[in-house]
Automatic annotation (TrEMBL), chain A:
Protein name in UniProt: Copper-containing nitrite reductase
Similarity comment: Belongs to the multicopper oxidase family.
Organism name: Paenibacillus darwinianus
CDD domains referenced in this protein's UniProt entry, alphabetically: CuRO_1_2DMCO_NIR_like
Keywords: Copper, Membrane, Metal-binding, Oxidoreductase, Repeat, Transmembrane, Transmembrane helix
GO molecular function: copper ion binding; nitrite reductase (NO-forming) activity
Catalytic activity, reaction form: nitric oxide + Fe(III)-[cytochrome c] + H2O = Fe(II)-[cytochrome c] + nitrite + 2 H(+)
Plastocyanin-like domain: residues covered: 75-181, 204-312
Subunit description: Homotrimer.
Cofactor: Cu(2+); Cu(+)
InterPro entries: Cu-oxidase-like_N, Cu-oxidase_C, Cu-oxidase_fam, Cupredoxin, NO2-reductase_Cu
E.C. number(s) listed in UniProt: 1.7.2.1
Transmembrane segment boundaries: 5-24
Automatic annotation (TrEMBL), chain B:
Lineage top rank: taxon: Bacteria
UniProt keyword Heme present: no
Alphabetized UniProt keyword annotations: Membrane, Transmembrane, Transmembrane helix
Organism whose genome encodes this protein: Paenibacillus darwinianus
Protein name: Zinc permease
Lineage: Bacteria, Bacillati, Bacillota, Bacilli, Bacillales
Residues passing through the membrane, by range: 17-38, 155-177, 184-205, 217-237, 249-267, 273-296, 316-341, 347-368, 380-400
The keyword Chaperone appears for this protein: no
């Protein structure tokens, strides 16, 4: 009797196992988990990296600057050990810093390798077709934005696909600089994009604030400056959810050029407040060596990642 | 007094008319009153006419590049949907079928073209013309199953692992149960009661949770209580029918074991319903951890089924039948939950499961040795069995996530 029962049990389990193996095979195909693991990594933006594009001369003698921007889906370590799914322009969050000179003919070829539709919406003066608002670029699609760069200043670009807040939260923005024909005085130049991450996508609050993409990055790897060396920072605010962000430096005062469109500074200060999408150029020179903090003056933001150090040496 | 000596036919006819009239007159009067209250008598109490909209969502479905919300007007009056928002942004190109004006208890399907992403949370907000805002949340979006062979297979697999395999695994302890049962049958029955008590509590708590999600107009708690009564007397009815009919089940002496399988089967159908509906509501990705948890948890059910019958001869056919009765409903539950989920029916169902388990507990109770409650509990084998049964369920429930 006992033996019979065990045989019975074994048979039942064998049958169930065979059935379940048959059932399992199509199910495993449905899960997309495997492809997530292979997602490429995105990195933060190097503050000293500028993309000047491919320079050539057009038929009418106008300088042509050609850029290529690829959108794709990646994961990024936005703070130590914290991975977030991001949509990137050229593999970084924030996206590249595109730099042209006043009067250049700008051609930006946009290739969408993401699984979501995207656009590139540039701020500044250009025809409607180069505005990147209504011309949705579907996954796998391309689009070329063409215009002549006018009015030197500091601009930005971002994806304008609805829902815009989601596309910005996931990293689709970058800096666009139009240099004046007469260059600005030489200086150590840096791009700083203030951003935020709502990692649980609840739309109610950000969990991290950073400058250039990774929380506390410049606390661990301070930015090296020299005493007496002029510094110019192209500061862009791409924070989502919170209407304002700010930039404050220690031990110094700076000239602030709102939007970088006017030759004279708007103010001399150590703290500027920027609304969403606002930007400005900051110029300063350190007088004394040492370590100086720079951070958002909203203490909440600085405690959540938007904080760094200038290491000033002789 | 009625004079019975009068013409009988006439009397019968008159009586019939009288009864019919007495039934219809109140109905007619109620009808007239309703018409009057809806019309000129509407302001009888002089209360101000303040609009009060209530909207319930029964389903949020995620299809490729599209979110669908099934809503029902559960308020007292008509309402008009004016705006549909996803994550705080007003959507254009929204389609509302059959239309944006919903009469009382009317349903509509809201179709929003949207590039949603798997596992992200979405809040669908609906504004009505009377300036009411309703928010419906999907904590983690997941492609909604449509009736297809792939999903049927998924639910069959889920049911097999959660419901069928564990029960049969539990049966494998029969030789050990027999050994124990020769001396301490009462303890084994007490163990079954412990297991069932845990299941019953689990089921009724889940029922209360579900009842809370049911729109007020459908009276969730009433549904739950109705279900409990139906389940309790349903088991009694089925048992008495089986006894009367005789046949193999009644003759095997395993009737109680069969009833326990049935009670557990109904409970497992509820478990399947919960997992299946998690698919629909976008609440959880069906992780293997959840399946492992239920598998471990449900092994105990196999022991509970056999315990009262260990001293009888149990043929293969009976084992197969009892296992199937307890396990297979999980598959059905999964499919119903996944393809045709309704919170109202689910609440009624959890009530039925609770009632069925209560009745099975009552039947097992009489098999536990001892005269009254106190004597039964005081006997060491009984309370040890009871405690072990409950503790086993508690410990294995720790494997069930969520």
């Amino acid at each position: 009797m006992k033996k019979r029962l065990w045989i019975f049990g074994a048979v039942v389990i064998m049958v169930l196992l065979i059935i379940s193996i048959f059932l399992f095979s199509p199910v495993s195909k449905q899960t997309g988990a495997a492809s997530d693991a292979e997602m490429p990594k995105a990195g933060p933006l190097d503050p000293a990296s500028f993309d000047y594009g491919n320079k050539s001369t057009g038929p009418n003698g106008q300088t042509v600057k050609e850029f290529e921007i690829v959108a794709d889906d990646r994961t990024m370590e936005i703070a130590d050990g914290v991975e977030m799914a991001v949509w990137t322009f050229n593999g970084t969050v924030p996206g590249p810093t595109i730099r042209v000179t006043e009067g250049d003919y700008v051609k930006i070829k946009f290739i969408n390798k993401s699984k979501m539709p995207h656009t590139i919406h540039l701020h500044g003066i250009h025809p409607a077709k180069a505005d990147g608002t209504f011309e949705t670029v579907a996954p796998g699609g391309t689009y070329i934005y063409e215009f002549t760069a006018e009015l030197p200043g500091l601009y930005l670009f971002h994806c304008h696909q609805e829902p815009v807040a989601e596309h910005i939260n996931q990293g689709m923005y970058g800096t666009f600089i139009i240099d004046p024909k007469t260059p600005r005085p030489p200086a150590k130049e840096l791009t700083m994009v203030m951003n935020s991450y709502d990692i649980d996508f609840d739309g109610a609050a950000n969990e991290f604030y950073t400058v250039n993409g990774k929380a506390f990055e410049f606390m661990k790897n301070p930015i090296e400056l020299k005493v007496g060396e002029p510094v110019r920072i192209y500061l862009v605010n791409m924070t989502e959810i919170d209407p304002l962000n700010s930039f404050h430096i220690h031990g110094n005062m700076f000239n602030y050029y709102n939007n970088g469109t006017m030759p004279e500074p708007d103010q001399i200060t150590d703290n500027v407040i920027l609304g969403q999408g606002q930007r400005g150029i900051i110029e300063f020179t350190y007088k004394y060596p040492g370590q100086y903090l720079f951070h958002a003056h909203q203490s909440e933001f600085s405690s959540l990642g938007w904080k760094g150090i200038f290491n000033v040496t002789e | 007094m009625v004079n019975v000596d009068l013409n009988k036919n006439k009397q019968k006819w008159k009586g019939g008319l009288g009864i019919a009239l007495s039934a219809l007159v109140p109905l007619a009067l109620v009808g007239i009153m309703v018409v009057w209250l809806l019309g000129s008598g509407g302001n009888l109490l002089g209360t101000p006419q303040i609009p009060f909209d209530e909207l319930s969502a029964s389903k949020i479905e995620f299809h490729p590049n599209e979110i669908q919300v099934k809503v029902r007007n559960t308020g007292p009056d008509d309402l008009t949907i004016t705006s549909v928002l996803v994550n705080g942004a007003i959507m254009d190109n929204v389609e509302i079928n059959p239309g944006s004006i919903l009469g009382r208890l009317d349903t509509a399907t809201i179709i929003v073209p949207y590039w949603w992403e798997e596992a992200k949370p979405y809040v669908i907000s609906i504004y009505t013309a009377d300036a009411f805002v309703f928010n419906f949340e999907a904590p983690a979006a997941l492609q909604t199953p449509t009736v297809s062979w792939d999903y049927i297979r998924t639910f069959m697999l889920m049911g097999t692992f959660v419901g069928i395999i564990p029960v049969f695994l539990g049966f494998l302890w029969l030789p050990i149960l027999r050994k124990v049962g020769m001396k301490y049958l009462s303890a084994l029955v007490a163990l079954t009661v412990g297991v069932l008590a845990f299941l019953g509590m689990d089921t009724i708590l889940e029922g209360f949770e579900l009842a809370a999600t049911v729109a007020g107009v459908f009276r969730g708690i009433t549904m739950l209580v109705t279900g409990i009564v139906l389940g309790y007397f349903g088991i009694i009815a089925i048992e008495s029918i089986l006894k009367k009919a005789g046949g193999r089940i009644a003759g095997s002496g395993l009737l109680l074991s069969y009833m326990i399988s049935l009670g557990i089967g109904i409970h497992n159908m509820g478990e399947g319903l919960a997992i299946g509906s998690a698919f629909i509501l976008g609440e959880a990705a069906l992780g293997s951890l959840l399946i492992i948890g239920f598998t471990v948890h449900n092994v105990t059910e196999g022991i509970a089924i056999l315990a009262p019958g260990v001293n009888r001869k149990i043929g293969w056919g009976h084992l197969l039948a009892m296992g199937a009765i307890a396990g297979v409903p999980t598959i059905a539950g999964g499919m119903i939950g996944g393809f045709a989920y309704s919170p109202v029916l689910a609440t009624l169902f959890f009530g039925i499961a609770t009632g069925a388990i209560l009745q099975v507990i009552a039947e097992c109770w009489s098999l536990i040795r001892g005269d009254g409650l106190v004597q039964k509990i005081q006997a060491a084998p009984n309370w040890i069995g009871l405690t072990v049964g409950f503790a086993l369920m508690y410990a294995t429930a720790l494997f069930v996530t969520g």
